[in-house]
Structures are given as C-alpha cells and as structure tokens.
C-alpha cells in the first residue's frame, strides 16, 4: 500500500544526518519538510499544516517535550499527530511522550521498514480521521456545511471579529410554503428543490467570503464575516432573485404558487462572547416576522445593543 503523495510529513531534528536519513526513507512517498530545531518546527507546522510530525526528543534549547507541549497548546497544531524519535531507550521517556499525546514512538537506530510502516499507518489514520471530520460536518442531501459546522465556524468568526473589531452579518433563509411543494410533488422532488436552493445560495457567496450551511429542514444560514448590513442585504436580494429565476411552480388549493424564500438578517460588531446566541435569535426573529407578514421578503434586525453599523 503506497502512501498518498499529497500528504506532508514534518521532521524536526537538530542532527542534519538524521534529517537526511529520514528524508531519504520517506521522500518517494510523501512531501518531506525539514526543521532543524523546535522553534523552526513549530513555525513550519503552523504555516504548512503537515499531516504528521516526526519529532526528535533530544535537541539543544527547546527539546522534543517542550516542542510537543507548544504544538499541543496551539489550536493550529494541536491535532497534528506526532511520532517521537529518540536514541533514549528508557521506557519512562516513551511513557512520557505517549502521556503528552504522542501517537507513537520510534527508537534509533532507524530501520527503513519500521519508519515507513509506522509513518504509513499514522498517515492512513490521519486520512481516515479527516474523512470522518468531513462527513460529520457536511449535510448529505445538499453537500453544504451542516448545522454543526456552522456552529463551529460562527464561534471562531465571532471571536475573530471581537479581536479585529470587524462586523459580521448573518442571513437565515427559509423556503416559503415548502409543505405545499412537498404535498404537490412528493418528498423526492422536494429534495431536488432543496438541492437547487442550496446551490443557488452557495453560488452567491464567493469562496472564502463566507459560509452557507443547511441549518435544518428547509432552513439555511449564510454567514458573512466583514459584510456590512448593506453588503449582506445585497447578497440576500441576489439569493431571492436567483431562487425566483429557478421558476419552481406548484399547485395548491386550486392556485399556482412558486418557490420563494423569506430572509431574516442581522449585522453586528461582536464585543462579547455572550451575545453570540442572541445574534442568531435576532436574525431568526426577523425571519419569523417576514413569514408572518406575507413571506418572500427580507427583514433586518436593527438592534442598538448589537451595535448595528448605521449606513
Ligand atoms: N423534501 C423534503 N422536505 C423536507 C425536508 N425537511 C423538511 N421538509 C419539509 O418542509 C416542510 C416544512 O413545513 P412547514 O414547517 O409547515 O413550513 P412551510 O410549509 O415551508 O411554511 P412556511 O415556513 O411558514 O413558509 C414540511 O413539509 C417538511 O416535510 C427534507 O429534507 N426534504
């Protein structure tokens, strides 16, 4: 079984000869990144996000344990698996490394087949873990992010907006009278509509600009970091327009209806972690109000408490 070529292994060792030996063992199968000390290793781990780190225990200055502690402490590197490599053959060192969260331990002298087998095993496990994480974060019907992913992203965007004093906008989008559509054509056709609406929403938000997620049922959220109320309202209008252009009609009670959406929106400059739940509720309350006052419209929260920027 070959290792996947895209996977990256960072090797941190103060001895150039060890770096060369390990690099020679692995470089046909993976991209190898080298670091000559702990500080450089941490910098490269943050910047290049390797799939696995091989870390020498005995290094002058910051040793392997100190490096490991720093890697574990930083959210950007805390989940990257680390294999310790050392010439020490005392079981207490091995125990210490494993207790610190190392996934494995390789003793010097290095045997090519052992290094390859262990690296291969842990890269395979990393790949499986990433696949599971992805599955846990994606809505299977629409392939959009799911509610769990949205909750993670909004928490980190909220914190980042507090730190950088930036604004954040949120749209809660709900298909109008979707029950009528389902009653008319059945659940399977209703599913196709959910997929179409999802891809329209995803198309309106550029890569890296924000997050579109299926919140549940026929409700979606569009999170737009750094979008002002005016900019976010423009996105909401465009979404409504494009959904109308799908021209999805249904019949109900002798009348013909068309698939439209209602949108509740909110914008704020986050200042306090406690107001995060309130933020969603404010957008959602506006959605409810839009539903109760005729649907197919956008209503925006204008709450002083959340410091909505005045445009
Ligand atoms: N096809 C399909 N329908 C779904 C799915 N999830 C929720 N629904 C349907 O969405 C409909 C939601 O009904 P309601 O809550 O009454 O909402 P609505 O008919 O859209 O009415 P308003 O929201 O008030 O405009 C129900 O018919 C659900 O069965 C899904 O995954 N697939």
UniProtKB/TrEMBL annotation:
Q: Which CDD domains match?
A: GGDEF
Residues in domain Response regulatory? 8-123
Gene Ontology cellular-component terms listed:
plasma membrane
SMART domains membership: GGDEF, REC
The 4-aspartylphosphate modification is found at 56
In short, the EC number is: 2.7.7.65
One GO MF annotation is:
diguanylate cyclase activity
**Cofactor(s) listed in the protein's UniProt record:** Mg(2+)
Catalytic activities: 2 GTP = 3',3'-c-di-GMP + 2 diphosphate
Has the keyword Phosphoprotein been applied to this entry? yes
**Pfam families, per the entry:** GGDEF (PF00990), Response_reg (PF00072)
EC main class here is transferase
What InterPro entries has UniProt attached to this entry?
Answer: CheY-like_superfamily, Diguanylate_Cyclase, GGDEF_dom, Nucleotide_cyclase, Rev_trsase/Diguanyl_cyclase, Sig_transdc_resp-reg_receiver
Q: Which residues form the GGDEF domain?
A: 166-303
| Keyword flag Phosphoprotein | yes
Q: Which Gene3D superfamilies match?
A: 3.30.70.270, 3.40.50.2300
Give the UniProt record's GO annotations in the biological process aspect. cell adhesion involved in single-species biofilm formation; negative regulation of bacterial-type flagellum-dependent cell motility; phosphorelay signal transduction system
* NCBIfam families to which the protein is assigned, alphabetical: GGDEF (TIGR00254)
Protein name stated in the entry: diguanylate cyclase
The species this protein belongs to is Marinomonas aquiplantarum
